[in-house]
Fold this protein.
Amino acid sequence: MSEDRRLAVLRAIVEDYVATHEPVGSRSLVERHSLGVSPATIRNDMAALEDEGLIAQPHTSAGRVPTDQGYRVFVDRLSQVKPMSAAERKAITSFLDGAVDLDDVMARSVRLLAQLTRQVALVQYPSLTRSTVRHIELVSLTPTRVLLILIADTGRVEQRVVETGSSLDDDLLGRLRSRLLERVVGQRLVDVAERVGDLAEGFGRDEVPAVRAVVATLLETVVERHEERVMLAGTANLTSYGEDWGGSVRPVLEALEEQMVLLRLLGESRTTDSLTVRIGHENAVESFSSTSVVTVGYARGDEVVAQLGVVGPTRMDYPSTMGSVRAVARYLGRILTENP
Amino acid sequence: MSEDRRLAVLRAIVEDYVATHEPVGSRSLVERHSLGVSPATIRNDMAALEDEGLIAQPHTSAGRVPTDQGYRVFVDRLSQVKPMSAAERKAITSFLDGAVDLDDVMARSVRLLAQLTRQVALVQYPSLTRSTVRHIELVSLTPTRVLLILIADTGRVEQRVVETGSSLDDDLLGRLRSRLLERVVGQRLVDVAERVGDLAEGFGRDEVPAVRAVVATLLETVVERHEERVMLAGTANLTSYGEDWGGSVRPVLEALEEQMVLLRLLGESRTTDSLTVRIGHENAVESFSSTSVVTVGYARGDEVVAQLGVVGPTRMDYPSTMGSVRAVARYLGRILTENP
DNA sequence: TGCTGGCACTCCCGTCGGACGAGTGCCAAG
DNA sequence: CTTGGCACTCGTCCGACGGGAGTGCCAGCA
């Protein structure tokens, strides 16, 4: 009973099960794949695979279904990422090239990914903390209110209203603006905090509170993870996987409405730009125990700025999904890199 | 056979059906409601109501179910909006009061509405075209790129990158900014177009193309319906209504991902601030033929700036839903009005 | 004229039993 | 180590059946 054939059987089981969504038996296995042995032999292999915990049977004397561990082995050792066809690549570029600004790029990417994979797609905005400051603008709204606008080099724009407490005249606003600009433009957002800590120095006594308020809001904007936005698309695809996906669709839909959950799904492997596959219970989030999450980082230049990925049933077509995810990440990275 | 009693029967049928989700028969009707007559009498009334097209039976000799028209009559003549309890009102205010900016207000409103109604909630951003310009800012990104930021008095901020073609120096940018400000600040967005048409006059020959580019983008931002954003929450609630909702959940989920569809659902009665209920086929959108949409405008000051509402099964609890929708609209309006 | 009780009828739905078939595990032989 | 054979297990798919809920109609009564 060769190790090789056993793995070939596992691969065949995964492929068939993904294709048919039905437990697969020894007979149909030898029919659909040229394994060169009889059903009985396969049955022995299957028994072994079951002992190893890679497959399981839903009921006695039904076909076999891959377990989470089975998928794990399949992904790690038995499959390779399926590259996109030329036509698909072309479709991707032409679809993404029409974008006019960052929001548009993100929106298009996430919809594209949902379409390609027929699953739920997630795209995280380029992280604020990893990018640098391109510009800061202060706009006076009312005497005691200032709109603080922060523009990152990724094209991302954050805005925030500051209650200054005391009033700011145009002169003070101008001085504050230029001080801020000279301190932080070109700096990485992570470093902004230490660059502006003493910014209040050099301002008049009565001006300090207002300056402090602005700086505080700026730091909030920069530091807060909370603002790591994630876009979502393709929730309708949840319905296609019938009822047989563990529990039901509801908890998944609920979880997908929580930004925090999305970030956890995407964020746990922040720095890599290699494909990450989290299968079933490997997901930290409870309600995703019968789903798999495929993520990858995308880069601007040669720095990974955020993650994107898809959420689907554990019985997804991993090679294709991984191919699509990787392809979208690459083209998205290219667009971000080319458009300064 | 009095008209009054027939309508009382219709009301009872709607109420029971909404509560139980099962066809309601003459016997259980007289048990649960004090109609003062026998089942046989009710049956006669039911036959009449069926002739009028207000109720129907799923199968011969099953109970009756309200038709779209039946709900229509119920909403128009037999029900009144159920006001929120004091506790609920308090919860609403405390939930909304924590908001820090417009995005936050919108996000909280939509989630709140979804929770209150246990349905899918929609909230449209305050319309750009109905509000006035508070400020316009031009920020130079690269020599040939300018970030145009438009701030409306509703607190809404739109940003857009302008490719100017030729290069803009700081001087030109400054002149352009002040010209723009003097022309449009305080103007209604609808009027912006005519105020800036001739803005290029007074600029040098070589400056005109860049000015034109900025103006064009500004108009695009102002005019484009496309940018009427809608927030969405509570899609998980779609699953609770079981399978028995016409067709399935999928087309509804799909439609809800289209901004255009959301706008159509909300937008058809733009100007009123009175409750609008669209039942089943009354919805223009195909996939919503077994859902009802309850919308209402919300105002800033005394001007309706946008719509909000919920999408649910036709067999929803209309009085409560209408109460929740109206309440959220009022509190949202109050917040927008109080925070300038 | 309108309400009521009675009655026959329709049809949905849950249950039960049996036949079928897919699939398994084991064994003895090649 | 592989293979064919064989007995066995279950899940699933009918078809029949009975109960029950609900209806429509009718004749009698206020």
